[in-house]
Amino acid sequence: VQLVQSGAELRNPGASVKVSCKASGYTFTSYYIDWVRQAPGQGLEWMGRIDPVDGHTKYAQKFQGRVTFTADTSTTTAYVELSSLRSEDTAVYYCAKRTAPLTGWGSYDYWGQGTQVTVSL
Fold first, then answer.
1. DSSP character for 13?
2. In the chain, what percentage of residues exceed pLDDT 70?
């Protein structure tokens, strides 16, 4: 199993960023993809998840209206797009797969390598 993310991004405040997560080695449609971020000096923050089968999403309230998750089953790739960026969005963004299929509970067994997003003038 591998989750391979796109490279580092630098954006100005107010811009948008889109990060990809290419999944392989398992049945992409059998597991949600979660997105988690970690700002400098802070803990992990759960952003939400997507069901690749039907595109159903669940967003953490903090990100409602600014974040969009999508998934392309033809390329087994998930995406997170965050808009209206501000300096507080500077963080490493991770995609992750849970151990159990199609559940929002339980541990993660695989993580992407992380994508650094920096928001700065």
1. T
2. 100
Rounded to 5°, the CA angle 42-43-47 comes to 110
Instruction: Provide the terminal-to-terminal Cα distance of the chain, rounded to the nearest Å.
Output: 37
In Å, what is the CA distance from 107 to each residue of 1, 46, 81, 104? 16, 13, 24, 9
What are 83-116's pLDDT values in tens digits? 999 999 999 999 999 988 988 888 999 999 999 9
**Count of other CB atoms within 10 angstroms of residue 36:** 22
Q: For residue 106, what is the DSSP state?
A: S
Residues 20/117, Cβ–Cβ less than 8 Å: no
Encoded tokens for 84: 């209206």
Structure tokens at 69: 């998750």
Predicted confidence at residue 105, as pLDDT, reads: 85
